[in-house]
Design goal:
Helix content is 38%, strand content 24%. The chain is of the alpha/beta class. The protein has a 9-stranded mixed β-sheet with strand order 3-2-1-4-5-6-7-8-9. Helix 2 (55-68) packs parallel to helix 3 (82-93). It is globular and about 45 Å long. The chain starts with a strand and ends in a 16-residue tail after the last helix. The protein binds pyridoxal-5'-phosphate. The site of pyridoxal-5'-phosphate has 19 residues, from strand 1, strand 2 and helix 7.
Length: 258
């Protein structure tokens, strides 16, 4: 059995964060382990409270998992603080595990999932360890300081992320204004390619970023080559958005079992 790891926040609503990651890991045939960085009180209407887990408890969870499980790929989601990023980076650096960084910053409802001062720690400590980073357009803009409006600026932002030490940058274009497709551009030192699916208009998109990066992590754990892994992850999130569960009165979860 291929073993995966998510280092992320808990979403009590079950559509994003740790819960989305573990469901996705399972759907894609891997055994998921988890390190919880924060507990969010959350439903389809939004984030009502955030409680960061003390950094020593993040550290002991991560040590426990790394010491005993043959983790084949890991992902990070909501890391919340510079102190948590520093701890996670220090421990992950000692292991040679493919790492997908989903640079979670702000929930769709506007709640902050990453403190402002943690952005520098993310860039200097975590990103140099990242095999893949999966920012959406606003996240890529924060990390690079660039303004992204089209394919050329998406590629330029991807290349800027490579200079920080990331091996592969997947710039997710779903947030581009006026877009009729969800067009993602994948940039690595030796390859640039695009994966694109029709844009689906629905309010049930909670946890899309978490689910996509978890699907990618599961495929990397299974040894799937990058291009195919990205394509499978894209298909997985497309199906999850296409078959909503209509749960709750606000932004509902995607369907991980679609
Ligand atoms: N809550 C947690 C714990 C998360 O990790 C994420 C992931 O980005 C979100 C909420 C954001 O969910 P969304 O912005 O898709 O509603």
């Amino acid at each position: 059995m291929n073993v995966t790891l998510t280092i992320a926040g808990s979403d009590s609503g079950g559509g994003a964060g740790i819960q989305a990651d573990l469901k996705t890991f399972q759907e894609l045939g891997t055994f998921g382990t988890s390190v919880i960085t924060a507990i969010t009180s959350q439903n389809t209407q939004g984030v009502h409270a955030v409680h960061a887990i003390p950094v020593q408890d993040v550290e002991s969870q991560l040590k426990a998992v790394l010491d005993d499980f043959p983790i084949q790929a890991a992902k990070t989601g909501m890391l919340f603080s510079a102190a948590i990023i520093t701890t996670v980076s220090r421990l992950m650096k000692a292991h040679n595990i493919p790492l997908v960084v989903d640079p979670v910053m702000i929930a769709k409802g506007g709640a902050s999932l990453l403190q402002q001062e943690a952005i520098t720690a993310m860039k200097t400590e975590l990103l140099p360890l990242a095999t893949v980073i999966t920012p959406n357009i606003p996240e890529a803009e924060v990390l690079t300081g660039m303004t992204i409006v089209d394919d050329a600026t998406m590629i330029a932002a991807g290349q800027a992320l490579l200079t920080i030490g990331v091996k592969v940058a997947i710039i997710k274009g779903g947030h581009l204004a006026g877009s009729h497709t969800a067009r993602d551009i994948i940039v690595s030192t030796d390859d640039i390619f695009i994966v694109e699916t029709p844009f689906i208009t629905t309010k049930d998109t909670h946890g899309t970023g978490c689910t996509f990066s978890a699907a990618l992590t599961a495929e990397l754990a299974k040894g799937t080559a990058l291009r195919e892994a990205v394509t499978i992850a894209k298909q997985f999130i497309q199906a999850a958005i296409q078959h909503p569960l209509h749960l709750g009165s606000g932004h509902g979860p995607t369907n991980h079992a679609a």
